[in-house]
Design goal:
single chain, alpha/beta, Rossmann fold, 6-stranded mixed sheet, globular
């Protein structure tokens, strides 16, 4: 997260850098629009409380599949990856489902990056969390739950 020094010499978080990963263009656009709207609401008046006390959000990139997600994470170093479970296969030697393998690889190489899985399939919850995701949410969840998962407020697994 982008940090600034405060007047007392401490640091405060001023922006959450987000990578959106979903194999559906429409889903990526919708999530980008939602997060952009939240960003506008937080940047217009920093003294005003917003949904879940959200911080400004900077969407730094998008990815369509696991391979692109890994490339973008390596190049852009986001604070949070909000991802669906992709159905595209990763190249060998990763025979597992793309989404789970992507989660594991991100956590192995960049353990401080927060991974929020946003999917339509509640049955994937246990495997997603055991792969290392920090939060598991169903698409259509309240925006406040998504924001809380992104900034690590409240339960890491609201589902």
């Amino acid at each position: 997260m982008t940090r600034q020094r405060d007047r007392k010499g401490g640091e405060k978080i001023v922006c959450i850098r987000v990578l959106i990963a979903d194999d559906q263009l429409r889903a990526r656009r919708s999530l980008r629009a939602l997060l952009t709207a939240i960003c506008w609401s937080t940047s217009s008046d920093p003294a005003q409380p917003t949904l879940a006390g959200a911080l400004p959000i900077e969407i730094i990139g998008e990815a369509e599949n696991g391979e692109e997600t890994l490339q973008q994470v390596g190049a852009l170093h986001p604070d949070v990856v909000v991802m669906d479970l992709h159905t595209h296969a990763l190249p060998a030697p990763e025979p597992r489902s793309d989404g789970l393998a992507t989660i594991e690889m991100i956590k192995k190489q960049w353990p401080d990056i927060r991974i929020v899985v946003l999917t339509m399939y509640a049955t994937d919850r246990a495997s997603v969390l055991s792969a290392g995701a920090d939060a598991f949410l169903l698409k259509g969840c309240p925006t406040s739950e998504l924001l809380e998962a992104m900034v690590h407020r409240g339960s890491a697994d609201p589902g």
